[in-house]
Amino acid sequence: MKIVLQAEQSITIDSVEVQAVRDIFHEKKIIARVKGLPKGIVLWSGDAEYTAAGNWTNETALARATEVLAGSAVNWAF
């Protein structure tokens, strides 16, 4: 049984521009706000990913945001 709670919505952005990054240490999560998107995306989450991110930079955050947005499912920050 398929129940649609909300119809698919999509937007197009010309390029990925990270406006802000938030490092939530106690949750082991790093999220970013990307220009043109209605809410933030999760860049790294959980012990392994958080440790692998290490001392992230603006360049690594941008690369990761581009990677996350190119994937089949975006992990949205709430």
Describe the fold and architecture.
There is one protein chain. By secondary structure, this protein is of the alpha+beta class. It is 27% helix and 23% strand. Strand 2 and strand 3 (41-45) form a beta hairpin. The longest helix has 13 residues, at 58-70. The radius of gyration is 14 Å and the shape is globular. The two termini are 27 Å apart.
Key features of this structure:
single chain, alpha+beta, 2 helices
Number of strands: 3
Average predicted local confidence, pLDDT: 93
Termini, distance in Å?
27 Å
Which overall shape is indicated by the principal axes computed on the Cα atoms? Answer: globular
Low-confidence stretches: none
**Main sheet specs:** 3 strands, antiparallel
Order of helices and strands: EEEHH
Structural class: alpha+beta
Strand order of the largest sheet: 1-2-3
The helix fraction, in percent, is: 25-40%
* Radius of gyration, taken over Cα atoms and rounded to an integer in Å: 14 Å
Residues in β-strands, percent? 15-25%
Number of helices: 2
